[in-house]
Structure formats: C-alpha cells, structure tokens
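Hi there. Long-time user, first ticket. I'm pasting a complex I've been working with (about 605 residues overall). I'd like to know whether the download I got is complete or cut off, because the file seemed smaller than I expected. Thanks.
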Amino acid sequence: MTAIESNDTAFSAARATSAQSGRRSARFWRTGAVAAALWLGSAAVIEFWPEIIPAPYGRELAILSVLIAALLVLVLTTGFILGKTAIWVRYYGPWFAVAAVGLGIWEMLTAKLAVLPVPFFSSPQGILEVYIDDWARLGESVLHSVLLLAKGYFFGAVVGFTTGVTIGWSRAAGYWVHPILRLIGPLPATAWLPLSFFIFPSSGSASVFLIALATAFPVTILTWSGIASVNRDYYDIARTLGASRWFLIFKVAIPAALPHVFVGLFMGLGTSFAVLVVAEMLGVKAGLGWYLQWAQGWAAYANMYAALIVMALMCSSLITILFRIRDRVLSWQKGLVRW
Amino acid sequence: MVALAPSDFRTPPNLTGVQVNIGAVSHQFELEGAPLPVLDRVSFAVEPGQFVALLGPSGCGKSTLLRLLAGLDHPTSGSLRVDGEEIGDPDPSRILVFQDPTLFPWRTVWDNVALGLEAQGIIRTGGDRVDAALRLVGLDGFEKAYPHQLSGGMAQRVALARALVNDPRLLLLDEPLGKLDSLTRLTMQAELVALWQKAGMTAILVTHDVEEALFLTQRVLVFGPRPAQIVADIPVDLPYPRHRGDPRLGELRRVALQHLGLAATW
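Hi, the file is complete. Here it is re-exported in full:
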C-alpha cells in the first residue's frame, strides 16, 4: 500500500520530457493535427448525419466538438506560449484523438443508427441535455453528497486517528480495544444500515455515523500500525534530549506514523464512497446516490449516466485533494520514497 | 579499580565536565526467559573533563553501559553516579550519540538540532544556540536540508550538533563513527577531539577500533568478553594534537591488542 501514486506525478514527470523535446525541435505537432481533424470529423457526423432518434442539443454538441478542435489548433500553432495548458494538452494529445473517435462511434451507434436501443442507452447529446436542463438538481445533489461525506469522513478520520494513536501508545488501551476492533472492524459498515436508520433520529445522522464508521476502521488500523512501527531509537534520542511524554507522542510518534496514517485515510476515503452511495440510495432523500435511484425510477437513463460521470469526477477530485494534502504534509518524504 | 588522575596530560581549560563514578554495576537481559548477564560488577571512575574510551569486542556490553549512564535503562545492581548523584531518568545534561545518526527524517537539519531545546521548552530563546552548534560542526548553510539529502558523515555531524546544542556535561558516544567510510572517519576523529576540547565536557567513547580509541582519548578501558569486566586501564599519555604515526601510539596499540587476546596478530 505504500506505492500509492497519483497520476499527477506520472504526468509531471512526463511533461518535463515532452516539454523538452518539444522545445528542442519545435517541430510540427502531428498528433494535435490528427486529433483536431478527428474532432472536426465527429462534429460533422453529429451535425450533418440525420438522426434516427431525434434529440435536442445536437447542435450544441457539435459546437463543443468544434471548440475542442479549435483549442487543439490553437495549441498547435502557438507552441508553448500557453504554458501549462499547452503542456497539458500536448501530453494528452493521443487521448484527445481517441476521445474524438469514441465520441463519433458512440454518436453513430445511438442517435444515428440506433444500434444501441433507447431508453437503456443514451446518445452523447442526451447526456448533454441532462447537464443543460437539469444542472440545478444535479448540482444540489453533488452538494448534498459532498457535505454528507465530509461530515462522516471528518468524524471517522478524527475518531480513527485518535483511537489508533491511543492503542498504539497505551498497552492498556490496546488490550481493551483490539478484540473489539478485530470483531467489529471487518464488518462492512453497510451491514449496520438497517439498524442505524432505526436508531438514529434522521437518515442523515445515521448516514454520517455509517460513513464515519467505514472511515474510522482503516484509519485506526493504519495509525496504530504506524505508531507501533516507529523506530525505538527515536524515542531514546528524544528522551535523552529531555522530551516529556507529551513531546514523545506529538513530536515523535505521530510525525513518524503519518505516512501510515495517510494510507489509512486513502483507504477510508474509498470505503466511505461506497457507504455514501448506499446510504443515499436507501434512506437519504438527497445526493447523487438518491439521484441515481430517482433516475432509475423514471427510466431516465441519460440522467443516470450523467450522474455517474459527475460522481466519478467528484470521487476522483476528492482523492486528488487528499493526494495534494499528503504531498504537502509529507513533503519531507520526497526523494526518500518513490511517489 | 582506582581511576587515574588526569595527571599532566592536557585537559580542556574550561572544566564543565562531570565526575562519573560507576560502582559494581551488573546488568542482565532476559533472553527467551533465561537471564543473559552482560555486565559483571564493573567499577571505574572518570574525572571531570576526561575523555575515556571503552574498548572491547562487539556485544560485550559496552553499549549497555552507555545506556545505563544515559538513564535509558537501569542496572540490575550497582550504582552509577554523576557528580555524586545517582543517575535517574534521562537528562539533557547527559547526551547519547548513536552509531546511526537517527535524525528525524521529517525535520530539517535545523529542526533536528533544535530538538533538545524544543523538548525542554527553551527553543524560543535558544535559536542562536542551534546556529552556533551547526557552525561548530561545519554545517552552516545546510539548515533547510532534510536528512536524506545528507551524506553519512554530514548526518553524523548533525547528530553531534543535536547533542552539543544542549551543552551536555557528559557526552556518551556509542561508536559514533562506526558506519562512516574510512576517510570521513579519520577527518571526524580529529573533529571530535576538537569539539571535546572546545566544550570541555566529560566524554565516554564506546568503540571496537583500537586505533580510534588511542588516537582520541586520554584513557582506554579494555573490556573482556561478555559478561563484561574491565581487563585493562591504559592511560594514553600523549598531548593533542596527536599524530597517527607516533611510535608511542603503536606501542600502546600492541598493549591494547594484547589485552584483547589478539597479541598474535601484532
């Protein structure tokens, strides 16, 4: 689990080399030209090929494709003047090309040829329609989901961290908490769902509890193992230098254990997503999970796809934020371990 | 065993070092339920400001003795006294430097050196002491570096600065140069002597390097195999700075090797 790697680092490593090779030769960016042509092509398919399944916003989708092609051409002609954006666009050039082809094929299979049947499949403009017409409800759902997740995750992380430090430090606490952890910990948090909806006054508070529970377990275990694996010599050094017990915990044990704690936080975030969606589908009357359920009820599959995309973006953004925090807090690890 | 007076060979001018008295100290570990004696009624005294080496085969209990002096462990029996007072808990006036620098990887060089002052709650007024300690070991300019960016020798210098910043009155050195390459080692041996002369504390060096013990210290206590007992007390009656080619050092080396049971290798 130590080899958690963000795509960002792979990207920044690659962009250094691509920027270099680009500057060295300043040669024609062929991938960009191909990608731009492909985006224009898919725009043409969307605009000029008559639809079997008519849907609004075909024109808007075509315009969007043309805009992407224009961006590629802009980067192509201006070289690296646009700085970071240009480096990013150039790095993902092949992805731009493949995405254009994907969009074209998708468009043909759905709107143009109706090979994939409605209502189970949606055309690209069908999804665009959801974003344009239903953005308010989707946005509100995202907000609810993020708020609920933040509350649960925060409590879970704090409780897990505190418990982990306590049982890692105190033998007595470990004696009493370990058996409980071993028994309750592996139980999926969702198993508590019916009970907690019954016990808690509202489905919201029940969900906060469940998400906190799902987060706390991995954070506790990893914090505890982090504290337990701190080099004994660090304590000896600190003690001879006059460290108090407080100092040993907060200035030696916890900083030394932080890399482990972050692994726990990542695992906790992953499990909390699962619990969030289930809780929203089964009890809470808001959030993306609820939106999915609601869309299914109305057989609004385009809405479901749209919500899934938003959910994916939300989860990956939250993971990215956690990566950023870790990179900042554990910046001393740079050069010590491979990120 | 009666301690030698620091007679006429050079002792540092500003005597801030402590007097150390070790009386019949025995210590044993529990190893898989069976007691493992490591020290057997060890007695000796160290005069204030003296630099003493504890020389002996590895695993003979020298390091254990240092831990006892630091207050990290307590002896099974016997007494350890510093300036007449029984050693209790660890105290920043007695600092132990390990074979590994054991710097905290999440702290910069400056923050590592500041550790002791921070732990004692006097960092706010003692910032310039950290700078001074870094200058003393020749690492000014590396304040913001992280430990993983340092070479072995530099890391060990930081560890020394981390000890010296507390103005220890007893410096306990547990093979502090043991893991360095031989060239760095020779340089740092001279630096250690200079640091000790400047600070004037009492210093006890544990080593299994005969040459190092003789080159650095004023007195070499040779330990036998475990459970450790002192088999010889060799005064090194040479002024500083010393020269490695000094024939007197060679002669003392032969004596030390003899006590270690290695006379045949001479």
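A couple of notes from our side: The two ends of chain A are 12 Å apart (CA to CA). Chain A has a mean pLDDT of 88.
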